[in-house]
């Protein structure tokens, strides 16, 4: 024999005896369920709000991370000079800056120069015409790249400021990465020559000989030539003292009588 549950039997008998009690019981059940729902929502809502906040923070951080590279896409010459060959064509800025860095390099040989440019463009584009436009004077790159806005998805334009002017590089996205389009950009050789400081050549000072021109009114006085002393003039005392006196040599034979114009005084014996 089945035994009746005393709890359900008492509730059933209490509810079924009056319709009002049935309505009150239903209202109590609905209120209990509503309160239980509020409690569950209050507990789980706080946890969900914390997770939502963390998710929102994660979304904002990811957004900032993804937006930061967009603002840091511009590169400098130093960053490209130490970059590996596989990373050169990863962005328009790196390809353009590497091209400019290799183009203004005057220390490499012609073969090395052409090989370096061929890394960001097709080798057949590096021809004799481009080699003729290679700068012979040193050119320095003044700042980072400047990517122009409004470019397409497969091509863009990058500007690089140099000491010889602004180089405009057009690059295209290919299967091998970003490459420089043809015609390949060059720099004006006149601007390169103008940007190169000229060193002055020091010349030896020239000495000019001053010539004196006599005025028309005065005739130049002739220079006096010192005359040699005559043999008839007596020697100066100093010369007489130093030179010995000449001794006359006697001439043998009779003494000559000089012829006189007047007679000798006295009688002739």
Task: Briefly characterize the structure.
The protein has helices spanning 6-16, 19-71, 77-81, 92-103, 110-117, 128-132, 189-195, 237-242, and strands spanning 146-147, 155-162, 165-174, 177-180. It is α+β, with helices and mostly antiparallel strands.
Explained architecture:
The chain is an alpha+beta fold and 269 residues long. The protein is 40% helix and 9% strand. It is built from eight helices and four strands, in the order H-H-H-H-H-H-E-E-E-E-H-H. Strands 1-2-3-4 form a four-stranded antiparallel sheet, covered by helices on one side. The longest helix has 53 residues, at 19-71.
What is the fold's blueprint, element by element?
Elements: H1 6-16, H2 19-71, H3 77-81, H4 92-103, H5 110-117, H6 128-132, E1 146-147, E2 155-162, E3 165-174, E4 177-180, H7 189-195, H8 237-242
Antiparallel strand pairs: 1-2, 2-3, 3-4
Structure summary, number of beta strands:
4
Rg to the nearest angstrom? Answer: 62 Å
Specify the biggest β-sheet: 4 strands, antiparallel
Return the structural class: alpha+beta
Helix run count: 8
Give the end-to-end Cα distance, rounded to a whole number of Å: 237 Å
Shape: rod-shaped
* Lateral arrangement of strands in the main beta sheet: 1-2-3-4
Question: What string, H for helix and E for strand, traces the elements in order?
Answer: HHHHHHEEEEHH
- The helical percent reads 25-40%
What share of residues are in beta strands? 5-15%
Runs in which pLDDT lies below 50 for 5 or more consecutive residues are 62-72, 198-220
Mean pLDDT: 74
């Amino acid at each position: 024999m089945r035994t009746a549950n005393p709890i359900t039997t008492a509730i059933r008998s209490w509810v079924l005896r009056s319709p009002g009690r049935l309505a009150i019981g239903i209202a109590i059940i609905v209120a209990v369920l509503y309160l239980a729902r509020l409690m569950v929502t209050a507990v789980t809502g706080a946890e969900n709000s914390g997770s939502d906040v963390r998710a929102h923070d994660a979304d904002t951080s990811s957004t900032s991370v993804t937006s930061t590279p967009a603002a840091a896409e511009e590169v400098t010459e130093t960053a490209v000079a130490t970059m590996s060959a596989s990373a050169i064509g990863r962005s328009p800025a790196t390809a353009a800056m590497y091209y400019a860095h290799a183009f203004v390099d005057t220390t490499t040989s012609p073969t090395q120069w052409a090989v370096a440019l061929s890394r960001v463009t097709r080798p057949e584009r590096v021809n004799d015409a481009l080699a003729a436009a290679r700068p012979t004077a040193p050119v320095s790159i003044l700042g980072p790249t400047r990517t122009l806005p409004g470019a397409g998805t497969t091509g863009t334009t990058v500007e690089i400021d140099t000491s010889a002017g602004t180089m405009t590089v057009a690059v295209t996205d290919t299967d091998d990465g970003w490459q420089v389009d043809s015609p390949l950009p060059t720099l004006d050789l006149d601007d390169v020559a103008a940007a190169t400081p000229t060193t002055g050549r020091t010349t030896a000072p020239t000495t000019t000989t001053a010539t004196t021109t006599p005025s028309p009114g005065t005739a130049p006085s002739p220079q006096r030539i010192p005359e040699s002393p005559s043999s008839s003039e007596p020697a100066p005392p100093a010369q007489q003292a130093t030179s010995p006196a000449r001794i006359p040599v006697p001439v043998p034979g009779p003494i000559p009588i000089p012829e006189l114009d007047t007679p000798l005084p006295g009688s002739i014996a």
